[in-house]
Amino acid sequence: SYQRFTDCYKRFYQLQPEMTQRIYDKFITQLQTSIWEEISEIKQEGNLEAILNALDKIVEEGKDCKEPAWRPSGIPEEDLRGAMAPYLLQQRDALQRRVQKQEAENRQLADAVLAGRRQVEELQLQAGPAAGLAGTTHRAEGAGGRAEGA
Description:
Elements: H1 2-8, H2 10-15, H3 17-45, H4 48-64, H5 76-149
GO cellular component, one term: MIS12/MIND type complex
Pfam family, one: Nnf1
Keywords: Cell cycle, Cell division, Centromere, Chromosome, Kinetochore, Mitosis, Nucleus
């Protein structure tokens, strides 16, 4: 205030009260300008305006909330369990879905393998007598060919 300013410079105020008033006015103007410049610089450097706007938004959203805000109980294990339980349950459900999907895929693959084995067995049964004759013919020719060549 001007009164405190004059108390600090009593002697000067007594000699020149008008000059003291002008000095005070100039001092206040420069001080306000300097403060505003520094505040602007801080706001720009730290993205303070965006942060303060986000904080205002959080405060406004909190006013609409009827239930009390969460506060730590003082027992870290309980707080962590309470915070982690929903996440862990969600992860468990996702893993269970993944296991079910994998088991279904495994059943389809097992069915395909069994169908392929049945098909191979049927082909072996159909080609059984013919495959047996063809095998002996090749063996006989192979043995005869070597005997003649020797």
